[in-house]
Amino acid sequence: MFFYLAKLLWFFLQPSCLIAFLLLLGTVMVWTYWARWGRRIVALAAFLLLAVGLSPLGNWLVLPLEDRFPRADLDRGAPPTGFIVLGGAEQRYIGEGRGAPTLNEAGDRIVEAGLLAHRFADAKVVISGGDAALFYPASSEALGTATILTGLGIDSTRLVLEDRSRDTYENAEYVKAKLQKLELLGPDKRWVLITSAAHMPRAMGCFRQAGFEVEPWPVDYRTRGPEDAWRPFDKVSEGLRRVDMATREWVGLLAYWIRGRTDALFPGPEGPAKRPEASPPSAPHNTEEALPDAA
């Protein structure tokens, strides 16, 4: 229920939609008894559209998220046991329709997973992601990512597919359960988490709450760093997209913390003492792993 409710609420609460709804409301009111208020609402919506779309607001919201976790030092200590790459990097339904891999803005997740898999030839690669779509169902993201990685020369025997999760909390819970079953967890095991830099705080908080210690490897940066704090956007659509993405992460951090899905409101490199674990999510229908040689 939380998954569907979150999807529905976010559609109405994301800044770009709120501005559009304000514009629609004001336009309708202009033709009613409340015309004066309608004109004011239209003017407000127009101001917000330009302010949110062209100002550096999106960068202000993204920078604290992207700078929260530095990359782990993979050359120090034992080599990684494996890498965990979270879904969200594909337009899976388009890829199936076209018969070709179709990556979105988060495609760096798959690229980095491939690069690291070649760099550490003995490491496993865990691919976590089911089908999280509400209106355009497709096969699991784990299957799509596995197909891409094997096409890039990664041996399928190194891949571990987790194809049931629909959100970050389920990523953590189901990956942990999968690796426990395969006896790939333990104090001598070193796992590295690959996801978008802005998403890393929420992802790390979920894995910590699940009792699974991982090291961060953020990718898919949208800013260069502090020098972008005052860089405006040259397209309204790009500014709105950036604000929507960052707001989603901040709202997600709050909602996950309230529901006990993360170990802190804003997880950082040094995690606080763990809160009591939330009840694990009910498992959706099981699906077989598509690659016969995958672990």
Automatic annotation (TrEMBL):
One of its GO terms (biological process) is Gram-negative-bacterium-type cell wall biogenesis. Residues 267-295 are annotated as: Disordered. Keywords: Membrane, Transmembrane, Transmembrane helix. The keyword Membrane applies. Residues 83-252 form the DUF218 domain. GO terms for cellular component: plasma membrane. The keyword Transmembrane helix applies. The chain crosses the membrane at residues 12-34, 41-63. It comes from the Bacteria. This is DUF218 domain-containing protein.
